[in-house]
Amino acid sequence: MASSSSMTALKLNAVPISNPNDTAKKTETVDLGNGSDVVFIQRLIPSDQSWKWFHYLDKHIPWTRPTIRVFGKSFLQPRDTCYVATPGLTELSYSGYQPHAYSWDDYPPLKDILDAVHKALPGSSFNSLLLNRYKGGNDYVGWHADDEKLYGPTPEIASLSLGCDRDFVLKKKPSKKPRDGNDEPASKRLKKSSGRDDQHTFKLKHGSLLVMRGYTQRDWIHSVPKRAKAEATRINLTFRRVF
Ligand SMILES: O=C(O)CCC(=O)C(=O)O
Ligand SMILES: [Mn+2]
């Protein structure tokens, strides 16, 4: 039989070595209904590491502000962007713009960031990344869904935020007009679908990770609205899997 001292050692070894705060990373899951959900980890990356990545990306990423087409009109995209993807994937194209795909090897810290995101989301496997840089509260992303075909019917999109806090708003798409001759005006249908459960706002802080899953891109739209008080720069990385 084991001596009491080795029993003690056994017991000590059985205690998990990980910091208990690691498991208390304040993960919130919001069930949006009908197979859509959002997972929000408020403090995934510690602040000092997040600032290191922020400064590296701010300085080294070849940011561009492309001209895009929305509803037949040309606009300067209201934020800087850059695209990174594993070679050989279907090319991304949105709003009449096809970004050049840089490689993960071009900016090695991106691989460390990808590892940290994969570690937080076991079973996920992202192979592309769209980066955004908001240079102040006038920069924004308008209402949209990331429903491009290359992401498949139920894309998982993991969004890491660095720098200035910004609001991220999710809003349910208005339900389609029924085909059974019900000709209720669209304004009425919109009003009906603007209840409390049809809109959610998340404060995306430095080092936070927000993940959209299931049918979120089919049934919901999202935006990062202009915010007069958000004066500082924010960098956002959205990881996606191209099929
Ligand atoms: O900046 C964000 O948090 C969201 C960006 C976004 O929705 C996108 O790039 O598709
Ligand atoms: Mn998006």
UniProtKB/TrEMBL annotation:
- A Pfam family per the record: 2OG-FeII_Oxy_2
Q: Binding of substrate: at which residues?
A: 71-73, 147
Q: Where is the composition biased (Basic and acidic residues)?
A: 177-187
Top-level taxon: Eukaryota
Which of this chain's residues are annotated to bind 2-oxoglutarate? 132, 134, 144, 222, 234, 238, 240
Example of a GO MF term: cytosine C-5 DNA demethylase activity
The Gene Ontology biological process annotation of the record reads: DNA alkylation repair
What PROSITE patterns does this protein map onto? FE2OG_OXY
Gene3D superfamilies under this entry?
Alpha-ketoglutarate-dependent dioxygenase AlkB-like
- Per UniProt, residues of the Fe2OG dioxygenase domain are 125-243
Residue span of region Disordered: 172-199
- What does the sequence similarity comment in the record state about its family? Belongs to the alkB family.
The molecule here is called: Fe2OG dioxygenase domain-containing protein
